[in-house]
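User: Sequence in, structure out. Go.
Assistant: Echoing your sequence, followed by the structure tokens.
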Amino acid sequence: MLRKITRVIFSIFIISFTIYILLDTFVLSNVYQVVSTTSNTSSVASLSSTTTANITDTSYEDDNISITITTDRVNDTTVYVADIKVSDPSYLSTAFAKSSYGKNVTETTSNIASSVNAILAINGDFYGVQESGYVLKNGVIYRSTSNGNDDLVIYKDGSFEIINENDITIDELLQNGAYNILSFGPALVEDSKISVSYNSEVGKSMSSNPRTAIGIIDENHYVFVVSDGRTSESSGLSLYELANYMKNLGCTIAYNLDGGGSSTMYFNGKVINKPTTTGNTITERKVSDIVYIGY
């Protein structure tokens, strides 16, 4: 009898512990640091009160920022392209969900974008579901433990570089002028050449998926790309198809961000693509962070 009671108690303990681990990993939020909501842009990149923006459903232009949105069809997939030119690289920035760095702290891309008055935004690297991997946002180091990932480094001068976390510390990157690090991947294009193979994929992801990518074409000239997927009207892209598309746009460096249900593009106050996790419902997935253009 005692042995049976012991087994029951042990089983309850194991089940409870497993549930806790799952909740702690995927559900329970833990805020490590609240981030100031004060604008992080430099004095050079401040909006003049006399600046007037010309805005349409597919474009935004003022003295400092020019954005043109186009929609394309590639391999039975709808692709949204934001072509961006800025007068100063500080208009390219990142933001945390709920203005907080932490674990499982999430918000929709549109809510984060609205909170920082973003003109254009895409989902970021979803750092919050990982225990390691560099986190450097707007010049501040939040996590310095390496996971050996290939990261995209965005420097203060607006240039891009692909690095491996095992090759350089985050402190060295900061000293070298790094301003933002995106740790998801893989790199899609390097030196204007496709850097993934035909069979490359992220984890156990399907070959055709909603995707999000960021690329640089020239000095202060960037592209944000989001593809829909998992629906009858939009199949989704493989990583190789996405890389080929970014190369054809003229990207010298392009990087894959979190995809699937996270893939979201926000422009002028609304979500312009059709984000979905299952394909049954068009709705945004909550994410840890965004990349955006704004003041």
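User: And one key feature?
Assistant: The two ends are 69 Å apart (CA to CA).
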